[in-house]
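Study this protein:
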Amino acid sequence: MQGEEPVSGGSPPSSSQKLSARTFTSSLLEPGSIVKENRPEYGTLSDQERARSKKEGLAATYDIDDLISLNVLAKWRGTILTNRTLVVETIVWGGLYWSVFVLFICIRWENFDKFVGQEVTIRAFIAMFSTLIGLLLSFYTALNLGRWWKMRDGVQMIQEGCKKLTMLVFSGVTNDQVLHDAIHRYSRASLFMIFAASHHKDGDDPPFRRAVKIGLLTVEEADMLAICNPHATFVHAETLWIWMANAVTRLHEQGRTKGPPHYCALMAAVEQGRSGVSHIQSYLETPIPMGYVHLLCLMVKIHNFLITVLMAMATVKLAGGEHGFQAVGVFRTAFRAFFMPFLYNSILILNAEVTDPFGCDAADFDFSMYDVNMLVSCKSFYKATNVHVPDCLANKVYKKWQPTSTEGP
């Protein structure tokens, strides 16, 4: 193979298809483009693309050294602080706090201090909620992060199925270029449709039609998917692997494999990719029971309401009376009133974001990184098994195995 082949396995995609691909994934390589050698460590994004991703707050990796130092105070993009829901919630609870504060500071009566009671009793009352909510939030967060990582494992299974199948097929079975293009296109299309389903909005084309627009599927292949199943995205993603299993079976029937064990290894690679799709589907379509989530969110909102109102009244108490204005006490109660609702709301929002990591949030998976990785890996594997093999291996006649003699006891 002297150069890069078209991704589609036939004629190169049109300019409109290239534009659509660039629109969906800013760092997705154009079909038919040449992969440059000055790629970063993981062989996916160029330095310019990685820098642009960091600037936009969508980088898949981050510098932990910045987060453990005072530089964390300057971090903004890609963090929970940019979440619109959190900003709105904070403004709402802040508005409630100042409304209660202004109301009671204006109508404060003679025995208001006794009416509010001691601050220690207020904190003890709030602690009853805080302890239980902290326990439930910890369990909920651990459960969601575990599910998030399992879905990342599913993505890895798709990637590894694609790479393993490429390695096994083109290492002594066949060097058919059309099959090579089909393997990486179908693998990438199966993952693309999962991401496209999470991005889908009313009026958008189905995910398998969008795969045609970016050159991962042909119109004929999309029509066949529609015949097999009209609309189920995950069924379409798995069907692509069934087509690859069909190709493996044909290779075996034509005598290209080295026997049943070799055929089973090829089918195992196909099954690994298909299982990755099924793995992801099981988590996306089976959320944590609504009753648990509803109870937790309800308790958080009740806690936020109570702490906002009670801390506002405690602030009024410390802002006047027989002891005068107590600056430290006012700051302490006001900070607690703002910080605790902000913290609990932030944890709930972070949990909501990791529930579906295939969407558009800053913390979600980056399709372009996985897509480019499968593309360049398959092309590299193909070259390594057909053209670019070191002389020490290409022309090597290996000796027959013989037991070696050992000296000494």
Q: What stands out?
A: The first helix runs from residue 15 to 24. The two ends are 54 Å apart (CA to CA).
